[in-house]
Amino acid sequence: MKIIKTYYLIDYENVGSEGFKGCGKLRETDIIHLFYTDNSRKIDLDIINDHGEAKLVTHKVPTGNQSADMHLGSYLGYLVGAKHMDQKESCKFVIVSKDTGYDPIIQFWKTEKKAKVVRIDKISNKQTKYK
C-alpha cells in the first residue's frame, strides 16, 4: 500500500504566521518546510509550535532579492524529483504563499512530472484538488 504524504512549503516572508493557521490539524504524513530569512517578520512561536502531528523543518536562507522564493522553488524541484523516483510513496506538494510568481513553477512540475502541486495562502485553506 502506498503512503500518501503532503509537503507544505511555506514562504514565511510572504505569509508570516498567518500561513500556519490550520496546521494543528495536520497528520504524521504531513511535512512542513518553512523558508525564512533575517528579513522575515517576527515569528509567532505559539502558532509554529502547534503543528499537529506534522514534521516541521526550517530553512534559513540568505537574505537577498527573492531569496526565499528562489530557495523554495529549488527545493520543490528537489522534492518532486526525489519523490518521483520513490514508488512506495504518493506525494502532494502545497506552496503556502500569496505570491502568484510560483504559478509558472507549479504548472511546469504538473506538466513535466505530473506532480500534484497547488498554491494556497494558509494551511487552513487546504485544497484537495490537484489539477
What can you see in these coordinates?
- With 131 residues, the protein is α/β, with parallel strands linked by helices.
- 30% of the residues lie in helices and 27% in strands.
- The protein has a five-stranded parallel β-sheet with strand order 3-2-1-4-5.
Keywords:
globular; single chain; 5-stranded parallel sheet; alpha/beta; 131 residues
TL;DR of this structure?
The chain is α/β, with parallel strands linked by helices and 131 residues long.
Question: Would you tell me the overall average pLDDT?
Answer: 88
Instruction: Point out poorly predicted stretches.
Output: none
Order of helices and strands: EHEHEHEHE
In this structure, how is the largest beta sheet organized?
5 strands, parallel
General shape: globular
Number of helices: 4
Strands in their spatial order, largest beta sheet: 3-2-1-4-5
Q: SS-based structural class?
A: alpha/beta
- Tally of extended strands? 5
Strand content: 25-35%
Radius of gyration: 14 Å
First and last CA, distance = 23 Å
Helix content: 25-40%
Spell out the blueprint of helices and strands.
Elements: E1 3-11, H1 12-15, E2 30-36, H2 45-49, E3 55-60, H3 67-85, E4 89-96, H4 103-113, E5 116-120
Parallel strand pairs: 1-2, 1-4, 2-3, 4-5
